[in-house]
Every structure is written in structure tokens, then in C-alpha cells.
Design brief:
The chain is of the alpha/beta class. Helix 1 runs parallel beside helix 3. Strands 1-4-5-6-7-10-11-12 form an eight-stranded parallel beta barrel, surrounded by six helices. It has a single domain, classed as Aldolase class I (TIM Barrel). The protein is globular and about 45 Å long. Strand 2 and strand 3 form a beta hairpin. The chain has eleven helices and twelve strands.
């Protein structure tokens, strides 16, 4: 049986981990390297780092930070935000990341997925998508529209159609981050996650809304997610990775334990 993965997310702005609700009213929380080491030592399966303002500000990824993370932790991690081209992907992977996450770039240039998968392997290319609920079912049959630029821009693209297209282009994993639940700690968008998971043949990672262990249990069981990204519930110190995994084991969820 494939085990479910727990992935702490570190949103980075100006070399500080920050957290807000739907990318607004952000509060700085700490140093990304120190937090990465703490979560890695605590038993998480992977890490993901997003430079949340790089794309909107038109600047590149902080390669020095990627190198520092690679030196400090010994688990896989992904990096997103500020990736503009294939050379940026190459530099991030050479700096020590196992995966590169593309979101806004993939929408504006879908061929970047195919080219990245060809050069580096599908396992290295992650599609980040930020869907928001949409009432126009004729235009958005899935009920969700893709947004970009940190939720700032609506694209007119249907979420499920985009997921299927990205899989066809060679993406190895999809992170489904619900705009409607991001940072709320009220639970993942189960229907959205399940819909994507049931219609693609690659791993789907749930993101946005995790606040309790029950939310994780729900998104693994009912949402069919292969992994879940968490942030606020551990950044606040309310839960440790060990506490979360112990709860998941008690609920019958297959996970990797490191103790």
C-alpha cells in the first residue's frame, strides 16, 4: 500500500516564512532554514517552499536559499515561485531541490511542462494550481476556475480541464490549492481534491485549509489525496508532525513513521 505524505509548506517572502489567509494579511513567522530543519527532524516526508511574491514582482528564485536548504535537510523538497524558464528549473535542481513547482508560468507557457519533463523527468515537475469556485457551469464544467499570480488573476480556464492537459504534457504531480480555503484552517476543499484525483493518473496533493488531524483524515479518505500540504497547524505550534502522524495511524491511514 502506498503511504500518504505530510508536506509542510513554507511560504517565503524576503527570506522569512510568512503566513496569511488567501495570501493577505501575512505575518512573518521565522527563518526558513531553521523551520525546515525542525520539520525535517520532526518526521515530515517532504517540504515545499514557495516564494509567494516572486512571480508578481517579476524576479527570480532565491538560489542561495535553495542551496542552504539542501545543505541543512536530508529529505526531498520542492521549490516554486519565480521560475521563469528551463534554465531556472535547471538551477533549482542543481542547487539541491528534488522538484520544481510551476503555476503561473505553466498557464502562460504550457510547453514548459513538456520541456521540463523531457529534460529532467516527470518526477521533477510539479504543477501548482489555485482554483476558485465558479458559478458559470457552462464555462467551467468542473465548477472551478484557475487563478494565477497568487490568486490575483482569473484565467478563464477550467480546473479539471487544466489538470488533464498538464498530465498529458508530462507533469508528475499536481498540487491542488483551493483559493476558497487557503489559510482558513477550516478543512480542505474535499470535492475539488477528489474530482482532480479521480480524473488523473498521477499523485494529487491537497493544499489549503488544513487545521486539524480530522481535516487530514478526511482529505486522505474522502478526498483521495496522495499527500497533504500543511502550514498554519504546525507553524502555530498547535501540532507536531509526530502528533499528526500518530493520529493518522490511529485512524488507519498508511503513513511513514520515523520513530
Amino acid at each position: 500500500m502506498l503511504t500518504k505524505r505530510i508536506i509542510p509548506c513554507l511560504d517565503v517572502r524576503d527570506r522569512k516564512v510568512t503566513k496569511g489567509v488567501r495570501f493577505q494579511n501575512n505575518i512573518d513567522l521565522g527563518d526558513p532554514i531553521e523551520m525546515a530543519v525542525s520539520y525535517s527532524d520532526g518526521g515530515c516526508d517532504e517540504l515545499v517552499f514557495y516564494d509567494i511574491t516572486a512571480s508578481a514582482e517579476g524576479r527570480g528564485i532565491d538560489i542561495d536559499m535553495v542551496r542552504d536548504v539542501a545543505k541543512a535537510v536530508h529529505i526531498p523538497f520542492a521549490v516554486g515561485g519565480g521560475i521563469k524558464n528551463i534554465e531556472d528549473m535547471r538551477q533549482v535542481l542543481l542547487a539541491g531541490a528534488e522538484k520544481v513547482s510551476v503555476n503561473s508560468l505553466a498557464v502562460s507557457n504550457p510547453n514548459i511542462i513538456a520541456e521540463g519533463a523531457r529534460l529532467f523527468g516527470s518526477q521533477c515537475i510539479v504543477l501548482g494550481m489555485d482554483p476558485v469556485k465558479a458559478d458559470d457551469k457552462q464555462k467551467f464544467p468542473s465548477g472551478y476556475e484557475i487563478t494565477t499570480q497568487g490568486f490575483r488573476t482569473r484565467t478563464g480556464m477550467d480546473a479539471l480541464e487544466w489538470a488533464r492537459r498538464a498530465e498529458g504534457l508530462g507533469v508528475g504531480e499536481i498540487v491542488v490549492n483551493s483559493v476558497d480555503t487557503d489559510g482558513t484552517q477550516r478543512g480542505f476543499e474535499i470535492n475539488l481534491t477528489r474530482m482532480i484525483a479521480e480524473n488523473v493518473g498521477i499523485p494529487v496533493v491537497a493544499s489549503g485549509g488544513g487545521g486539524t488531524c480530522g481535516h487530514l483524515i478526511d482529505v486522505f479518505n474522502d478526498g483521495k489525496a496522495d499527500a497533504a500540504i500543511i502550514a498554519s497547524m504546525i507553524h502555530t505550534g498547535r501540532f507536531t508532525i509526530k502528533q499528526i502522524k500518530d493520529e493518522l495511524v490511529a485512524a488507519g491511514i498508511a503513513i511513514r513513521k520515523k520513530w
